[in-house]
Write a structure and sequence with these properties.
Layout lengths: L1 H16 L5 H5 L9 H17 L3 H13 L8 H12 L8 H15 L8 H32 L6
Amino acid sequence: MASVLLCCRFLQDYCARGTFSDLDLIDNLGPAMLLSDRLTFLGKYREFHKMYGEKKFAEAAKLLLSLMTAKIAPRSFWMTLLTDALPLLEQKQVIFSVEQTYELMHCLEELTTGKTLPSDRHLVQDEDIEATKIELLRLALARNLAAAIVNEGTVDTL
């Protein structure tokens, strides 16, 4: 239970600041990472950021996608993960394959299906920001899909 609270705090801090608050602790989780899905996610998410920082984009993309498709990432954090995918989707070199792009599209649709409109004015502004993110993601996914299809030379990859 304490591990879940700790992970939630780290993830909330990350969302608020855009960086992790205590890298030493996260980097040294070691076998403790296996104690809970949240700790595993936190350790793997940190690993994604390391790979990205080292410009290992293909590996980072694969890890990011696996966090969502394996359901390791909390669903409430999926939009952050999809937003993290944006720079990878916008690279000149195709990072995500056709299949991986379809998986990202599926995750986005799963996340956005059944959303209701808020009535509070402050929430409407937040919803506008969220809608803009979703549209940017859809556009980036469509562009990446087209580039990946051309790159792979066929649309028969499904």
